[in-house]
Structure prediction request, 81 residues.
Amino acid sequence: MEIVIDAGSGTTRTYEIIATRAGRKVAITHSRGVVEVAEITRGGSAVRTARFLANRVLALVEHPAADNPLADEITPALRSV
Prediction:
C-alpha cells in the first residue's frame, strides 16, 4: 500500500506499508478526519500502524500481491513420517 500525502509548499511525500509475511494483510480505516493504514496478522492484531490527516492524503495506491512468493514468505509444510 502506497500513501501519497501533501507535505506543504507544493511537495508530496510517499510512504509504503507492506504485509511483510505470508498471511498478513494491510487494512485501511477512515474516521474523524484520520486515515489509518495498518499491517494486520491472521489473529487480527496490528503489527505496525501509520496515521495521516485525511485532508493531507492525496492518494492511496494498493498493489496486488506477487504471484510467486519470496523465499522468506514460504512456510514449509509439515510432513508426516
Strands lie at 2-8, 11-16, 25-31, 34-40, 46-53, 57-61. DSSP finds no helices and six strands in the chain.
